[in-house]
Amino acid sequence: MARCIGVLNYKGGTGKTTTVVNLAAGLALHGSRVLCVDLDPQGSLATCLGRRYTYSLAHLLLGQAEPQECVVQARANLDMIASDSSLLQAEGAMWRMNDNRLARQILTSKLRILEPRYDYIILDFSPSASILSESGLRYAHELMVPASTSYMSLVGIRQVVETLKNIGQAPGHRVRLYLIVPTMYSPRIQQDREVLGILQRHFANRVARPIRQNAKLAEAPSHHKTIYEYSQRSTAATDYTRLVERVLRDG
Ligand SMILES: Nc1ncnc2c1ncn2[C@@H]1O[C@H](COP(=O)(O)OP(=O)(O)OP(=O)(O)O)[C@@H](O)[C@H]1O
Ligand SMILES: [Mg+2]
């Protein structure tokens, strides 16, 4: 059965998309069959992976294309369903549906059709609490919460606690496992070490080893490359490989 992992944090810019791209790429290199799905109308996933597409998630949700038609092969073992600003219209249509529960089930029912082809389905959440975020929460079994340690410490911790609290209250969610991924971590900066320490004390073994701050991670998307393609020897590639190993172990 496919493992459905949602990568989520309602705070923006914490490394969600970076984590989706490189976790997916690492799992695919390991031989797993991976589908990543962009739930964000900013549409960063297709940009990062540098692939064109005809049908996006909006087409899938609106029933304008079959699930398989919306899937684009991005790399060996790595497929994606892309998004762009047309997702806002699809979300509008979902809001207008009379049956709210049914609207939030559309994503699940469409992705279920694709599940037999994959070992992992990874969702890149938008930073806002939209109807699609709720739909993603209904679908995901596991959550990964990238949290920036370089952000002001108290806010950094609070963002994780708030996110997990919101999920606990979300109706119909089926999350059974979560993992906090400290991102943009600079071991030389005292505040970063403090934030990491607090996270570890608070969440114990649900905290992954941190992804260090590394300029290669910020550069790779403009070359439409994963970190393994852009800088195989970087600390960032090492850190994401560790995360891949952790996910494989948790399974
Ligand atoms: N470990 C890191 N070191 C350096 N830069 C990073 C790191 N992780 C992510 N970045 C950069 O930080 C920025 C934000 O990352 P990303 O887009 O992955 O965040 P996000 O949580 O998906 O944002 P949004 O909430 O807008 O979707 C990007 O420019 C990305 O390249
Ligand atoms: Mg993003």
What does this structure look like?
This protein is an alpha/beta fold and 251 residues long. It has one domain: Rossmann fold. It has helices at 16-29, 44-49, 57-61, 86-96, 100-114, 131-139, 153-169, 190-203, 215-219, 227-230, 235-250, and strands at residues 3-7, 34-38, 72-75, 78-81, 120-124, 142-148, 177-183. Strands 3-4-2-5-1-6-7 form a seven-stranded mixed beta sheet, sandwiched between helices. It binds adenosine-5'-triphosphate (ATP) and magnesium ion (MG). Adenosine-5'-triphosphate binds next to helix 1 and helix 9.
Note the main attributes of this structure:
single chain, 251 residues, alpha/beta, Rossmann fold, 46% helix, 15% strand, binds adenosine-5'-triphosphate, binds magnesium ion
